[in-house]
Amino acid sequence: MNPNNDKDSLKRFFIKLIAITFSIIVIINVTYNLIFAEKLETLEKILSINDKENIDQIKDKVRKEIKKGLLKDKVFNDDDRILLQQFYLKIQNEFKDLEK
User: Fold this and answer.
1) pLDDT at 60
2) Under a CB-based contact definition with an 8 Å cutoff, are residues 20 and 26 in contact?
3) C or N: which end of the chain has fewer Cβ atoms within 10 Å?
4) Are residues 37 and 56 in the same domain?
């Protein structure tokens, strides 16, 4: 065997190893950015609900939704109204038991 040939083979091996490693890192980075970054950002917003500005944003969003609901002819559909009425009656019965 020629020692010069062995050095060339070893050099090619390391070049291929570095290229494959770099490719894997790029693929993992792109996958992370495309798939997980948005979901992690949403999760971070949910977890940071204690911040003052996030609380204000949630309040504003709730107010806007209530205003939109008031402009509608019917706020709830029939199934929701039945469900809310049953829930209301159950709560009312629990408060009656509390008074006794």
Assistant:
1) 92
2) no
3) C
4) no
Q: Are residues 56 and 99 in the same domain?
A: yes
Torsion of CA 65, 70, 72, 75, to 10 degrees: 80
Q: Please tell me whether the overall predicted TM-score, pTM, comes out greater than 0.85 for this model.
A: no
Q: How far apart are CA 99 and CA 41, in angstroms?
A: 47
98 and 65 belong to one structural domain: yes
Question: Any idea how long the chain is?
Answer: 100
How does pLDDT run across 50-70, given as a tens digit for each residue? 777 778 888 899 999 989 888
Q: How far apart are CA 98 and CA 100, in angstroms?
A: 6
Give the domain extent around 40.
1-47
Q: Please tell me whether residue 74 adopts helix, strand or coil conformation.
A: coil
Using an 8 Å Cβ cutoff, are 79 and 71 in contact? no
**Considering its fold, how many domains does the chain have in total?**
2
pLDDT for res 20 = 96
